[in-house]
């Protein structure tokens, strides 16, 4: 049993902390939102009065926060209160630059640290089947792995500080672009009089095959579990896809990489969000693609 502090008990952090309790750890949590605290308490998480109070006796600290600025603020606040040698793990999806700065903050206090963003969404968080993409020194990763195994089923060491965030945004840039590509193919098929099922049957076993088609098919029917069959309820919200595409474009700019389709995907999702659809599943982008034909 490890003593773990968990800061950020929202849609992802709440169920992740609950799974650490189920895995036999002693978990103390903190969040700014009272409803999140109540849900975590009901799942067996001890609630602290502040982030600093939560980390006091922790051997491991996990943060699951919205963005880089939140992680920077919380890590600056708690690091002076963290016990000597405690392991710092950030599971939020944040920009690579902020992730590297967090590692530096921890290193200055001689604390091992890992950036470990996830994929798998809220369903994976609840089921404990998340994939973790980790960045940090080998010894820190080795210490983090058994903790992460309490919340996920695949844990990949991607490299040094920030490598987990780099892997996450590269993967999600593929995802954002491929969902638009699949949506364009269905929109074209509709105009050509080709049925959704016929396109699916061919493309899902041909060279057009990809996760956006076979797991998250943007039209109802061919993949019964895809959000399209549930009125495009997330799933993975379009606003979060836009966030990740923005992170990919910030990283591409800073690193000098050319990502023209990533940039275009970002602008398409931005228009979709501005039209009020940020809370829908990101596969709802097919509506926007269809609308473009009328313009
Ligand atoms: P969320 O908004 O539901 O949860 C974030 C929580 O952090 C909130 O409860 C908020 O009150 C808390 N918080 C913010 N500032 C705080 C502070 N100073 N002290 C304590 N708590 C604070 O968001 P989420 O959906 O749980 O996502 C968390 C992270 O995981 C994000 O970076 C997101 O991009 C990433 N992510 C989300 C999903 C998903 O499907 N929701 C999937 C993969 C990755």
Attribute tags:
295 residues; alpha/beta; Rossmann fold; N-(1-d-carboxylethyl)-l-norvaline Dehydrogenase, domain 2; 6-stranded parallel β-sheet; 3-stranded mixed β-sheet; binds nicotinamide-adenine-dinucleotide
Could you describe the 3D structure shown?
The chain is an alpha/beta fold and 295 residues long. It has two domains: 158 residues, Rossmann fold (3-Layer(aba) Sandwich); 128 residues, N-(1-d-carboxylethyl)-l-norvaline Dehydrogenase, domain 2, CATH 1.10.1040.10. The chain is 52% helix and 13% strand. The strands form two sheets. Strands 3-2-1-4-5-6 form a six-stranded parallel β-sheet, sandwiched between helices. A three-stranded mixed β-sheet has the order 7-8-9. Helix 1 packs parallel to helix 2, helix 4 runs parallel beside helix 5 and helix 8 packs across helix 12. The structure holds nicotinamide-adenine-dinucleotide (NAD). Nicotinamide-adenine-dinucleotide binds next to helix 4, helix 6 and helix 11.
Number of strands: 9
Please give the largest β-sheet: 6 strands, parallel
Order of helices and strands: EHEHEHEHEHEEHEHEHHHHHH
User: For the record, what is the CATH homologous superfamily label of the largest domain?
Assistant: NAD(P)-binding Rossmann-like Domain
| Poorly predicted residue ranges | none
What oligomeric arrangement do these chains adopt? Answer: single chain
The CATH topology label of the largest domain is: Rossmann fold
* Cofactors, ions and other ligands in the entry: nicotinamide-adenine-dinucleotide
Which CATH class of the largest domain? Alpha Beta
């Amino acid at each position: 049993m490890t003593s773990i502090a968990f800061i950020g008990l929202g849609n992802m952090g709440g169920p992740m902390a609950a799974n650490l309790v189920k895995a036999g750890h002693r978990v103390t949590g903190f969040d700014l939102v009272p409803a999140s605290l109540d849900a975590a308490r009901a799942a067996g998480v001890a609630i602290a009065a502040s982030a600093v109070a939560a980390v006091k006796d922790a051997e491991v600290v996990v943060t699951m926060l919205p963005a880089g600025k939140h992680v920077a603020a919380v890590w600056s606040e708690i690091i002076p209160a963290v016990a000597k040698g405690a392991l710092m793990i950030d599971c939020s999806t944040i920009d690579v630059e902020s992730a590297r700065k967090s590692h530096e903050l921890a290193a200055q206090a001689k604390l091992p640290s890992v950036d470990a963003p996830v994929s798998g969404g809220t369903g994976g968080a609840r089921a404990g089947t998340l994939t973790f993409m980790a960045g940090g020194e080998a010894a820190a990763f080795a210490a983090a792995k058994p903790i992460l195994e309490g919340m996920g089923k695949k844990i990949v060491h991607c490299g040094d500080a920030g490598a987990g965030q780099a892997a996450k945004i590269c993967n999600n840039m593929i995802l954002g672009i491929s969902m638009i590509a699949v949506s364009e193919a269905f929109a074209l098929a509709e105009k050509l009089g080709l049925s959704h099922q016929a396109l699916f049957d061919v493309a899902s076993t041909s060279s057009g095959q990809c996760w956006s088609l076979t797991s998250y098919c943007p039209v109802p029917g061919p993949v019964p579990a895809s959000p399209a069959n549930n009125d495009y309820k997330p799933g993975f919200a379009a606003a979060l896809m836009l966030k990740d595409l923005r992170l990919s474009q910030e990283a591409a700019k800073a690193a000098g990489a050319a990502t023209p389709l990533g940039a275009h995907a970002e602008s398409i999702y931005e228009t979709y969000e501005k039209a009020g659809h940020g809370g829908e599943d990101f596969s709802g982008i097919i509506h926007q693609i269809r609308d473009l034909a009328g313009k």
